[in-house]
Structure formats: C-alpha cells, structure tokens
C-alpha cells in the first residue's frame, strides 16, 4: 500500500505540487487579509478608548507602514491590558509561528521547483495552513487555544519530518527551539501548563525515536546532493531562528532596562522636588517610618490673600498659572536662603530651617520672610491685583515625618508649629509676625515693632539691621 502511494505521488507530482502551491498562496492571502482585519479592529478599539491619540486618523506613508510591519506582526494578540509576562509569551508564540511558517513556505516553494519532494510539499503546505490558523486565532485573542495548537503543530511537524526524511537533514537540531517553548511561552504562575508542555514535547521525542528505529533512513529516499542542500538550509534557518530570538530578547531586555532606569530617574527627580534630600533618601531606601525630632528649629507659616476675588472672573487654568508664578518665586527664595520647604496647601505655604539640615538659621528664615513679602508686593504691582501676605515665625522644638503610603506627605508638629500658625493668624496684610522665642534669637540682627496690646509676646519683623562702619555710622 505504501509503495503504491509512493508511485501515485511520483506520477502525479507536478499536479499535486501545483495544487498545494496554489492552496498555500491563497491561504497566505487569506491570512494577510485576516490579520489586517484584526489589526484594524484593534486600532479602532484603541482609538475609541483614547480619542486624543495623536496617531489616530493620520495617514501613514508606505515607508512608515513597512517599518512598522515587523513590530505589528510580533505584537499580534497583544492588547493594552496585557501584562508584561503575557506580552513575552505572546511575542514568543508569534516568533515561533513565523519561523514555522517561513520554514514550511520555503519547502513548499522548493517542492514546486524541484521534483521528488511532493511528500514534503504536501506536509509543509498542511503545516502552513495550520500555522496561519494558529496565527489568526492568536490575533483574535484566543491565546490559550492558539498556544496549545502551536505546541501540537510544532511538535508534530518536527516528529513527522524526522520520520519522513530521516536524521540526515539537520531536523533533529530543531529540538533546541522546541525546548525554548515551555521556558518562554508560559508565565511564572503557569507551572502546571509548563509541566504539561514539557511532557508533550517529551512524548513527541519518544515517538520520533521509536519510529526512527522502524524507519531508520526515513520514508523518503533522497539523493546525496538533496540531503546536503537540505542540511545547509535547515542549519541556516535554525541559526536565523536562534539568532532572532536571542537578538529580540536581548534588545527587549535592554529597552526594558533603560525604560526602568529612566522611570527611576524621573521618580527620584519627583521625590527630590517634593521632599528634602534627607527625607528623599529614606523614602528611596523604603524606611518603615520616616520621622525626626529637632530640639531647635525655625518654622514659618505664610498665607496669601487676594485670590478669592479672582475665582469668579478667571478660568481655572489662568488662576492656577497665576498662583504657580508666586509659589515658584517662593521656591527660588527658599533655595537662595537655604530654607526647607515643608508643604503647600491651597494658599498656605510652610517652610522651616533646622529640621533636616542640622543647625537652624534663624536669620535665613527672617530674610526669606522679608523677601517673600517684597515679592508679593512686586507681583501685585505687575498684575494690578491686590495680593497680600501674612506670615508667622516661631522657634523651638519640632517633630517631623512623612505620613501616608499611596500619597506620602511631609508634615511637622509641636507647640512651635502651632505658635507659628497663631502668629500668622495675628498678622495683618503684608506683615511678618514672630513669637517671643524667635524674637530673642533675631533681635540683634533685625529691627522689630511691637504688636498691639491685644497680642502678647508677638513682634512685627521690619527689616534687617545694617552693619555699622568703623566710625560708628551705617553703610
């Protein structure tokens, strides 16, 4: 029976090869159209979810499409909801399918050109059709079904080709690629599926070894020249597959590394801009509790007034831009005087010295307060709006720390903080009021005015004293 089938195939080889070739080309056209349909559907779905996508609706040139084609092919079946491990598994599936499709298509074309390969032509034509079906299933997000069909197809193809042509074609080396399947195509938690895949591949290997003993030289008898050509072709294809997989995952790993490095740098920049350097280091080191105690610190509370009248006649973006300008100026003054920003809530601004930087500088906080008052007055003149500043300063013990996990916030507590807030509440427009504790540390370098009798132990900061000349005058 087997001999009669061989004779029939040999006699009708041109017709059979032509039929298989035509069917393969038609299937390839069907696969391209199907994949294009799924790609268009995925793009439409993505644009519906993100109408502001910059690439939506833009005509793409043929060169851009050509450059994007490999990326689209390797990303088939991947959606914006896919996790990292699922993306790796999907791309591995696509890479192996494309390798199998390329190999089978090469041998279908070879069967049309060279006589004596009709059995391989039929086998590779069937493999090509099944590979396209797997690819279309994957593109339509039937990932589990496509994955197991691909495992059966790859293992069966390897086993049948080994049985058909024997072990002289280099087909046995494709076992290397098969061994990569369970490693790359399954996620870490899919232990059962990975084990089952390895058992299936082991089964294919045992079946091939058993059948190889029965048909030691293969079912087809090939000439020496054909065997050499086939061996070289299979060796080249295997090298290309392994090189492609290693190159892809190497480049992917490097891109992921640099992306992670850039994200870490952006996160560090954000943390450094929000928190003082000492606090930022503790947050990066994931300290369980970020807290400190200062027996001597200077705290300043600032409240800006005049924005309430703008809510009804300005848009939100205009108002935020206006507020941002003055608070950016405050940040610049903090940097200039070496004072530490604590937090910002609405129009209330809190800063301090001596909490994280060791010894406090009472004079630096006082200079910052005076410069901030001048900045608000200048800002009012530039915008022709009536903005005023009320500030309160106090000195003493302070407890500080970071509270919250999802949105951590730096804050300070203690009687010194409450006293500074009380001084700010007692201040009038464009004045800085200091407590008795702060006054005792600043009176030698700054001029003050006493508050009204209704407020005890509070002083208005006026200006910094000018140093005396050698003759006793002032500069």
UniProtKB/TrEMBL annotation:
Residues 42-62 are annotated as: Disordered. The keyword 4Fe-4S does not apply. Keywords: Membrane, Transmembrane, Transmembrane helix. The chain crosses the membrane at residues 15-38, 92-110, 116-138, 145-163, 169-186, 195-211, 231-251. CDD domains: CHD. Residues 42-52 have a biased composition (Polar residues). Residues 298-424 form the Guanylate cyclase domain. SMART domains: CYCc. The keyword Transmembrane applies. PANTHER family: GUANYLATE CYCLASE SOLUBLE SUBUNIT BETA-2, SOLUBLE GUANYLATE CYCLASE GCY-32-RELATED. This is Guanylate cyclase domain-containing protein. It comes from Candidatus Litorirhabdus singularis.
């Amino acid at each position: 029976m087997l001999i009669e089938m061989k004779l029939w195939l040999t006699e009708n080889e041109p017709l059979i090869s032509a039929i298989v070739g035509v069917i393969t080309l038609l299937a390839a056209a069907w696969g391209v159209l199907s994949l294009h349909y799924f790609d268009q559907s995925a793009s439409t779905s993505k644009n519906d979810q993100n109408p502001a996508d910059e690439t939506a609706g833009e005509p793409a040139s043929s060169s851009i499409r050509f450059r994007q084609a490999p990326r689209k092919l390797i990303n088939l079946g991947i959606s914006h909801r896919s996790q990292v491990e699922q993306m790796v598994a999907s791309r591995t599936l696509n890479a192996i399918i494309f390798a199998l499709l390329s190999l089978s298509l090469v041998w279908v074309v070879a069967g049309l050109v060279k006589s004596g390969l009709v059995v391989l032509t039929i086998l590779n034509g069937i493999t090509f059709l099944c590979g396209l079906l797997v690819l279309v299933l994957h593109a339509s997000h039937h990932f589990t079904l496509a994955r197991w069909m691909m495992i059966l197809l790859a293992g069966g193809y390897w086993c049948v080709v080994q049985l058909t042509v024997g072990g002289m074609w280099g087909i046995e080396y494709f076992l290397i690629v098969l061994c990569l399947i369970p490693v790359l195509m399954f996620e870490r938690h899919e232990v059962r599926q990975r084990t089952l895949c390895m058992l299936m591949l082991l089964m294919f290997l045992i079946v091939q070894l058993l059948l190889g003993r029965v048909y030691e030289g293969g079912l087809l008898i090939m000439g020496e020249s054909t065997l050499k050509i086939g061996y070289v072709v299979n060796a080249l294809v295997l090298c290309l597959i392994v090189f492609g997989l290693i190159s892809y995952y190497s480049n992917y790993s490097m891109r992921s590394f640099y992306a992670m490095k850039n994200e870490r740098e952006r996160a560090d920049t954000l943390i450094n801009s929000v928190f003082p350097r000492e606090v930022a280091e503790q947050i990066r080191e994931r300290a369980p509790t970020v807290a400190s105690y200062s027996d001597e610190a200077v705290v300043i509370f600032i409240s800006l007034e005049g924005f309430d009248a703008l809510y009804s006649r300005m848009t939100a973006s205009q108002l935020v831009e206006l507020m941002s300008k003055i608070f950016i100026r405050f940040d610049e003054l903090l940097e200039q005087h070496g004072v530490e920003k604590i937090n910002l809530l609405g129009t209330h601004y809190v800063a301090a010295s001596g909490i994280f930087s060791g010894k406090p500088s009472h004079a630096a906080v006082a200079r910052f307060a005076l410069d901030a008052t001048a900045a608000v007055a200048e800002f009012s003149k530039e915008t022709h709006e009536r903005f005023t500043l009320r500030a309160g300063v106090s000195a003493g013990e302070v407890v500080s720390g970071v509270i919250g996990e999802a949105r951590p916030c730096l804050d300070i507590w203690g009687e010194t903080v409450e006293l500074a807030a009380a001084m700010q509440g007692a201040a009038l427009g464009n004045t800085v009021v200091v407590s008795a504790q702060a006054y005792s540390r600043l009176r030698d370098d700054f001029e003050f005015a006493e508050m009204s009798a209704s407020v005890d132990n509070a002083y208005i900061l006026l200006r910094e004293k000018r140093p005396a000349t050698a003759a006793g005058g002032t500069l």
